[in-house]
Design a protein that fits this description.
Helices cover 34% and strands 18% of the residues. The longest helix is centred in the last third of the chain and has 17 residues. It is built from eight helices and ten strands. It binds the ligand O=C(O)c1ccccc1NCC(=O)[C@H](O)[C@H](O)COP(=O)(O)O. Its EC number is 5.3.1.24.
């Protein structure tokens, strides 16, 4: 269960900055083309997850269209708590991971530009994942980049979808920064949030100060969101 996830950490100093903030989860990116990629075979990656565990942080591994056996192997080798799927993985694929004892978060790519205004873009994007029992990460559709784009989704549309589907647990992602996370939480009703580029001083480089500011702003806004407190947490 997490409330504030800082995704794409690469260094021990990043983990320490997260541990010193109110954030309670980290994401490690195993998608090779990403600027946030960490090599699962490097001993330093296991050191990162061990450090995170020692600080009580949940460790989430980000994957895009990685073969199932490879995800299972990496999750065990670097001791992940949960894997986050960002590619074209099917429901059957996610269920097979769960059958192998791996917890799964499904990233849902919500279009940033919506042409058909008659349909809620979140409803359309969630599709069959809505009632499959997986925790969802509602993120901006970043095209071939798959995630970490810094683009925001329609928070009101998220709110409307969630109001109609209160049993679905989800996290808000996409373009969240310290200066907009409070508004995003208030508008969407999110109980948990995720950011990657919003706490970076340059692309792929985390800033301890930005992590601290983001996590403090998110924590304060989540505390305001009392009617939903404790709901929809992974
Ligand atoms: O961050 C990446 O580079 C990335 C690449 C491919 C798949 C997923 C990726 N990130 C996953 C995350 O959970 C990010 O935090 C999420 O996409 C939000 O990113 P941002 O808009 O930069 O806050």
């Amino acid at each position: 269960m997490f409330k504030i996830k800082i995704c794409g950490v690469k260094l021990k100093s990043d983990i320490d900055a997260v541990g010193e903030s109110p954030a309670d989860a980290i994401g490690l990116n195993f998608f090779r083309p990403s600027v946030r990629y960490v090599d699962p075979l490097e001993p330093s990656t296991l050191e990162l997850t061990r450090r995170a565990a020692s600080l009580g942080l949940m460790r989430v591994g980000v994957f895009v269209n990685e073969p199932l056996e490879s995800i299972v192997e990496i999750a065990r080798a670097v001791d992940l708590d949960v894997v986050q799927l960002h590619g074209d993985e099917t429901l059957t694929f996610a269920q097979s991971l769960q059958d192998a004892g791996i917890r799964v978060i499904r990233a849902i790519k919500v279009p940033v530009i919506v042409e058909d205004r008659t349909q809620n873009p979140v409803v359309v994007a969630v599709g069959e994942w809505g009632h499959a029992g997986f925790h969802l990460l509602l993120d901006a559709d970043a095209g071939p980049q798959h995630g970490g784009s810094g683009k925001s989704i329609d928070w009101q549309a998220v709110h409307a979808w969630s109001a109609q589907n209160p049993e679905i647990s989800w996290t808000l992602a996409g373009g969240l920064r310290s200066d907009n996370v409070a508004q995003a939480i208030a508008a969407s009703g999110a109980c948990s949030v995720d950011t990657a580029s919003g706490v970076e001083s340059s692309r792929g480089v985390k800033s301890a100060e930005m992590i601290r500011q983001f996590a403090a702003a998110a924590e304060a806004a989540l505390a305001q969101n009392r009617p939903n407190a404790g709901k929809n947490l992974f």
